[in-house]
């Protein structure tokens, strides 16, 4: 999952970036509202974290501009202000949730995960597909109740596909959602990770879990419900 973090407090910015990367997110940074507006329009993010008190363009104006540009990724507002009017202003501008400073990074991550799930139409942290069970809270994947060990990059790719079952995602889209803006979009890294996922998740191609559509991309096939409730 790829996030946009717009925060002018550089110490907090780096602290949050490190924490989010430990949670397997890729994070692009902006230190003012104008830079945040540029990145928000330029890249397709899964969610954004925007501070209200930004230089050049404040957070409320930034959110308003993004929504007026028909950019609909979830937005979590950060504010050091306790007045309820500021929180209402953020929500009215198009934010989906808010968090008042100071806060625990764990709460921010939990709120982000909930926003991303809801934007994909998933209310629960558990995503089931046939015998597969992905837990977005514990970052674990099980098949028939048996845990499958995935690397950080493998998990991020599989989670993104599982959040969009049946949807074809091109290599470019997958790369953009998994890596920051400096990553080489011409790399064949997605093909490598797809091969690894198939080997780990469905080595005998019993379920046809990850499909390749030649010239288009990849998708997770929606599988029949499994009676296995373990994992």
UniProtKB/TrEMBL annotation:
Residues 124-222 form the OmpR/PhoB-type domain. InterPro entries: CheY-like_superfamily (IPR011006), OmpR/PhoB-type_DNA-bd (IPR001867), Sig_transdc_resp-reg_C-effctor (IPR016032), Sig_transdc_resp-reg_receiver (IPR001789), WalR-like (IPR039420), WH-like_DNA-bd_sf (IPR036388). SUPFAM superfamilies: C-terminal effector domain of the bipartite response regulators, CheY-like. Keywords: DNA-binding, Phosphoprotein, Transcription, Transcription regulation, Two-component regulatory system. GO terms for molecular function: phosphorelay response regulator activity; transcription cis-regulatory region binding. Residues 2-116 form the Response regulatory domain. This is Response regulator transcription factor. It comes from Ferrimonas aestuarii.
